[in-house]
Amino acid sequence: MLLRITHSTEYRYDAPLTYSLQRLRLVPRSSALQTVIDWNISIDGARVEVTYDDSFGNTTWLLSVDGEPHSIAIHASGTVETIDNHGMLGNHRGLAPLWLFRQPTDLSRPGPATEAVVGLVSAGNDLQRLHELMRLVRERVAYTIGATDAVTTAEEALAKGQGVCQDHSHVFIAAARLMGFPARYVSGYLNLDAIDAQTATHAWAEAHVEGLGWIGFDCSNGISPDERYVRIACGRDYRDAMPVMGIRLGEAEEHLAVRLTVEQ
Predict the structure, then answer these.
(1) Which residues does the chain have with pLDDT short of 70?
(2) Which residues belong to CATH 3.10.620.30 in the chain?
(3) Hey, which residues does 240 pair with through a beta bridge?
(4) Which of 13, 91, 92, 168 is the most exposed place for a label (fewest CB within 10 A)?
(5) Architecture of domain 88-187+200-224 in CATH?
(6) For 2-81+244-263, which CATH class?
(7) Coiled-coil regions in this chain (predicted)?
(8) What burial letters (b/e) apply to 186-209, b meaning 16+ CB within 10 Å?
């Protein structure tokens, strides 16, 4: 499938910024699941300090702002050709060792609620158990916008019984690690049926299965990623893979606007 993506993020401020630092992970990379045909990022109101590949293999840009600008506009766009490989990305690559993805983080730390979900996973081979886990997570955390936020943990999402793709991914990751699998968070784009314009990027999880490599699991939709998905970044949890994050100094009030289209 050939997908055309446009993703704009604009920050507006009611006063000049003392200082702001933004980190972008907005560049998809070619892999066994996708080929990047073309990709471009344009920045208005900030300067690019450095670009580099982080330890997880994500192309990363650092931007800074100080003084006069009252807005920062980030526009990413391009074309990516994807295939349906049942979510199978393949062998582990990158500087981060595989054992790192077995370690808990603040957002994906397992507790009693996670242990209870793992206890319900039926016997079977690795793939069967992971697909069963995906089904259980989807059953226990209803997709509800606004019920959680960026700092909600896996245990908190399970206690609420509500969340979004970020929460589904953290719960799956926490449980998969408890089951002995390396697991990680993936941010990306999803071509929704009959909906081109969206308000946010998507997220799912990947687990590493011996002999098969990394395999994706999207608990929000109950499937392994297919040709409608485009990977941007990955990491131990949301904080490692979030497309845009930053810090700012000063008293200026911030207003954020996001425009995203993913279309064939």
Answers:
(1) 67-69
(2) 88-187+200-224
(3) none
(4) 91
(5) Roll (3.10)
(6) mainly beta
(7) none
(8) bbbbbbeeeeeebeebbbbbbbbb
